[in-house]
Amino acid sequence: MDFHQLAADIKQWGAELGFHKVGITDLDLAAEQDALQRWLDAGMHGEMDYMERHRELRANPDKLHPGAVRAISVRMNYLPAEAGFARTLKNPRLGYISRYALGRDYHKVMRKRLKQLGDRIREACADLDFRPFVDSAPIMERPLAVKAGLGWTGKHTLVLDENGGSWFFLGELLVNLPLPVDQPVEEKCGSCKACITICPTQAIVEPYVLDARRCISYLTIELKNAIPEEFRPLIGNRIYGCDDCQLICPWNRYAHLTDENDFSPRANLLAPELLELWDWDEATFLKQTEGSPIRRIGFERWSRNLAVALGNAPADDDIINALEARRSEASEMVQEHIDWALERQRKAEHKTEKQVLRLVRAVERGLPRDA
């Protein structure tokens, strides 16, 4: 078997299946173990206990699939042409959903393509044994992607590429074939700290170190319990994830738009009115998020996130009435966030009334006495 030719063929087949870059690496992640352990010891994984439970597997991919000696790492662009970042983030009455979650669940799309790639390789090499991964097991996808030459680790901890930015999903095939490996690329963040500066909650505590407990993506997706009050005002109208560190990154000027129809935004999620989403009951939520990654957080966390966003919206009697109407039927956790939102709304309403009154008095003082 000519493994050099097979590696070249694999990259071509990957491109034909819609992967925008394919790289190959060995499975040695020893260099990552100390950093991972320090991060876990500092508790920066928050409630993600699985990160600690499976740390041994994360550092040793060959234990996930015995016999594997290489990872075929792939990436697929997901940024839609109609992303509508500014339109949504600048309007506090709309709900912002991370752009990766606007279309079909990427796990399903990527895993199916990886399975197809594995089957194609097996046609050329009957001895192939493979297993596909898409954020679906304790595997260190980003370090593998970096070792495979798909990009470098940015200061926000995401993988960056000078020709493609960071708007892409990652996936892997662990294989038992001794394919030639690709070389990592040079890191090109330089002195830039834009992602660190822009983070609303200052979750990037130092270059290349993210404290998940402060990250809006963690707070709105991974966190199962109440969102700490200190972070609620900073979340703004972000109801599922956050893209700020990617939006500000200079390398994303070169990002490529996706050509995958499955990643096109659903109309009901692109720039939704918060009050319209708040009107959904659980059955509607499940129906509207069918096939979407959003569905995995469940209706309770979805309602929690919406309550925070409504509390951060401009004072509005309709919002107050809507929050009050849902309170009695909500879970204890959601009630806590509703109460917080109501207090914010009433304070904002009172502040607005005082501002209007001051304006009226100022106008009256300036009028002629016989007016």
Automatic annotation (TrEMBL):
Associated pathway: tRNA modification; tRNA-queuosine biosynthesis
Keywords assigned by UniProt, alphabetized: 4Fe-4S, Cobalamin, Cobalt, Cytoplasm, Iron, Iron-sulfur, Metal-binding, Oxidoreductase, Queuosine biosynthesis, tRNA processing
Function as written in the Swiss-Prot or TrEMBL entry: Catalyzes the conversion of epoxyqueuosine (oQ) to queuosine (Q), which is a hypermodified base found in the wobble positions of tRNA(Asp), tRNA(Asn), tRNA(His) and tRNA(Tyr).
UniProt: tRNA binding residues: 224
PROSITE patterns: 4FE4S_FER_1, 4FE4S_FER_2
Protein name per UniProt: Epoxyqueuosine reductase
Location(s) in or outside the cell: Cytoplasm
Organism: Pseudidiomarina aestuarii
Molecular function terms, GO-annotated: 4 iron, 4 sulfur cluster binding; cobalamin binding; epoxyqueuosine reductase activity; metal ion binding
UniProt EC number: 1.17.99.6
Annotated 4Fe-4S ferredoxin-type domain residues: 177-209
Pfam name, any one: QueG_DUF1730
Gene designation: queG
Enzyme category, top tier: oxidoreductase
Cofactor: cob(II)alamin; [4Fe-4S] cluster
